[in-house]
Write a structure and sequence with these properties.
CATH architecture of the domain at 52-170: Up-down Bundle
Number of helices: 9
Distance between the termini: 19 Å
CATH class of the domain at 52-170: Mainly Alpha
CATH superfamily of the domain at 52-170: AhpD-like
Helix content: 55-70%
Radius of gyration: 17 Å
Strand content: under 5%
Shape: globular
Number of strands: 0
CATH topology of the domain at 52-170: AhpD-like
Oligomer: single chain
Largest sheet: none
Structural class: mainly alpha
Length: 184
C-alpha cells in the first residue's frame, strides 16, 4: 500500500477532462497548483518531442532504471516493445542501472544489445547526465554532432521529469494499477 491514499480524480473532474488516472498522477494531485502542469509536460513528452517513439522509450527506460523506479519501468515495458525496444535492449538498460558509466567506450566495443550508433550516443549522453551531472567534451561532441539543440534540451528535461516521477513513485511507494506486476 502506498504511503498516501489515492484521491478519486473523478471528484475533481480530471477523468472528464481526459486526464490520466494512473496512481502517480493521482498522488501528484495533492499539489493542485502543479498537477495539471505535470500532466501537460508528460503529455508533451508523448506528443511533441522531436524523437522517435523508440528513442523516447529508451530515454524513459534508462532514466527509470537509473532512478530505480519499478513503477515507471513497468508502465513502459509494453510501450517500448510496441515501438521496437527489444528484451535484450531492456536487459542492457537494466544492467546499466547497477553501474555508473555503464555505457562507456568499452561497452560499445561489444554492444551486446545491438543499439544503433544514434542510440549509443543517446544512451551515453543521457547516462552521463544522470550519473555524473555533467557531460565530458568527447560525449558532448558526439551528442552535438548527432542531435539538434532542441533534442539535447528535450533529453535534459525528460530525464529531469522522470527523475521527479521516479522519486514520487519510490518515496511514496506507489502501487501498480490493476493486474500489473512490478518489474525492474
Amino acid at each position: 500500500m502506498g504511503r498516501f491514499p489515492y484521491p478519486a480524480w473523478e471528484d475533481k473532474n480530471f477523468a472528464a477532462a481526459g486526464k490520466p488516472t494512473i496512481n502517480v498522477f493521482k498522488l501528484l494531485s495533492y499539489s493542485p497548483e502543479t498537477v495539471e502542469l505535470w500532466t501537460s509536460i508528460g503529455n508533451a513528452h508523448f506528443t511533441r518531442i522531436n524523437f522517435s517513439k523508440k528513442d523516447r522509450e529508451l530515454i524513459i527506460l534508462l532514466s527509470s532504471a537509473k532512478f530505480r523506479s519499478y513503477y515507471e519501468w513497468t508502465h513502459h515495458i509494453p510501450l517500448s516493445t510496441k515501438f521496437g525496444v527489444t528484451d535484450k535492449q531492456r536487459n542492457e538498460l537494466r544492467n546499466a542501472a547497477k553501474v555508473k558509466g555503464y555505457f562507456s567506450e568499452a561497452y560499445w566495443k561489444e554492444n551486446k544489445a545491438n543499439f544503433d550508433t544514434k542510440e549509443q550516443v543517446l544512451l551515453t549522453f543521457l547516462e552521463a547526465i544522470i550519473d555524473f551531472g555533467e557531460v565530458d567534451e568527447a560525449i558532448w561532441q558526439k551528442a552535438t554532432e548527432t542531435f539538434s539543440k532542441r533534442q539535447i534540451m528535450e533529453m535534459l528535461t525528460m530525464q529531469g521529469f522522470y527523475y521527479t516521477l521516479s522519486r514520487v513513485t519510490t518515496v511514496l511507494k506507489i502501487d501498480m494499477e490493476g493486474n500489473l506486476k512490478p518489474r525492474l
